[in-house]
């Protein structure tokens, strides 16, 4: 291809020399012509050329082939098609016809076969691109010809993997996350080898600036990928907390999804037969837990609405004021009369408080504590004040006295006696 041919594809005002990228490609025109010749034509023709080229370079012990040996080796091919393919490979410089009448691979052909073999070998596993790029960098490093362009290809692949893994986490799909995690683990060996290459590059003080700069960016990209595994685990833990189990069967929604993913289209169609309807009214399928959740939500909304209701009640006639309730002190006044009847002889404690059951006796016993208070603190009016001003003294003993009636088994021994009025000289 001439410069005039390329100029037809450039915008007005631009020449081929104005585009440095085209100059680099033009310098590699012989290599490009080799691959153009190899891959030009129909798909069948390209496959046939690749087949013959690979087989010619396959036998390392006998790198040269006679025409008869090639015909026997490719006995399954049409002889005319074979001769046409050999002629095309000779014309493109991929194979050579020596003076001794034997075919052998040219240097360009051997390089093409080697590059193709490497691509096919890495193509057998997933993410062949990362392995191929890492191996290419290792080869360039071994020949001390590593460049920024080769490093840029690796950086682009690492950034693409990072975006893919981040999208898998953002999707919330357990299967995408698990598959991405497996993919990250499969690429672990290439990431480790890439790290070794970067260390040697960054430790080289004579490395070009553009090479060192891209190497540092590759290191940052690999660091992000190293942290992705922890992000995968956090996402899986979050999914685990939200996993739905079908009743008490132990089967989760993930198990059902995985099983459905293994079924054929015909099996899925059979399962969906008569299971999908175009009517808008679908039957409610809910268990006890689902119904309870719905009922609890509805009840909470109802109570919340009632709590927020600030409507004033309707007008109504105010009720007639009733007399305030008064405390029933009849038991106190009756007990005060009983105590006031004590004269010169002291009364025993159990005789004074007994009567009417345990509750009444306990009440009377608690009233005796009022007698210990100062009479000055007694109310001026009322039965409580009158009770507190009784001239009586209560004495308790540490022993217990058997009573056996009025629901009282035993009571502390004690006596109640009247105080004598003080005399003045």
TrEMBL record:
Q: Which InterPro entries match?
A: WH_DNA-bd_sf (IPR036390)
**Source organism superkingdom:** Bacteria
Q: What is this protein called?
A: Uncharacterized protein
């Amino acid at each position: 291809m001439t410069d005039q041919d390329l100029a037809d594809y450039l915008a007005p005002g631009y020449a081929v020399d104005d585009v440095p990228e085209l100059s680099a490609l033009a310098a590699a025109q012989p290599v490009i012509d080799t691959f153009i010749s190899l891959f030009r034509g129909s798909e069948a023709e390209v496959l046939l050329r690749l087949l013959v080229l690979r087989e010619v370079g396959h036998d390392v012990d006998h790198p040269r082939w006679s025409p008869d040996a090639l015909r026997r080796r490719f006995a399954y091919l049409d002889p005319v098609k074979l001769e046409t393919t050999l002629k095309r490979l000779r014309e493109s410089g991929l194979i050579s016809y020596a003076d001794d009448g034997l075919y052998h691979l040219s240097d360009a052909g051997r390089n093409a076969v080697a590059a193709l073999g490497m691509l096919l070998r890495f193509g057998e596993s997933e993410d062949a691109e990362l392995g191929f790029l890492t191996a290419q960098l290792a080869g360039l490093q071994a020949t001390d010809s590593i460049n920024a362009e080769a490093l840029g290809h690796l950086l682009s692949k690492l950034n693409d993997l990072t975006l893919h893994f981040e999208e898998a986490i953002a999707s919330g799909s357990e299967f995408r996350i698990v598959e991405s995690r497996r993919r990250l683990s499969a690429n672990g060996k290439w990431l480790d080898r890439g790290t070794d290459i970067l260390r040697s590059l960054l430790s080289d003080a004579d490395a070009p600036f553009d090479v060192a700069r891209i190497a540092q960016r590759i290191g940052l990209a690999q660091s992000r990928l190293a942290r992705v595994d922890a992000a995968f685990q956090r996402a899986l833990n979050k999914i685990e907390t939200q996993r739905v189990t079908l009743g008490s069967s132990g089967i989760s929604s993930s198990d059902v999804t995985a099983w459905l993913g293994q079924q054929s289209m015909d099996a899925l169609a059979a399962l969906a037969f008569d299971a999908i309807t175009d009517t808008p009214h679908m039957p409610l399928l809910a268990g006890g837990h689902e119904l309870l959740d719905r009922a609890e939500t509805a009840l909470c909304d109802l109570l919340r609405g009632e709590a927020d209701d600030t409507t004033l009640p309707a007008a109504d006639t105010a009720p007639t004021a009733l007399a305030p309730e008064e405390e029933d002190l009849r038991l106190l006044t009756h007990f005060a009369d009983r105590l006031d009847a004590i004269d010169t002889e002291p009364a025993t404690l159990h005789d004074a408080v007994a009567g009417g059951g345990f509750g009444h006796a306990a009440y009377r016993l608690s009233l005796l504590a009022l007698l210990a208070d100062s009479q000055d603190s007694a109310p001026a009016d009322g039965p409580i004040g009158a009770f507190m001003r009784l001239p009586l003294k209560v004495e308790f003993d540490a022993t217990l006295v058997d009573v056996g009636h009025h629901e009282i088994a035993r009571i502390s021994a004690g006596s109640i006696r009247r105080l004598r009025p003080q005399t003045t000289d």
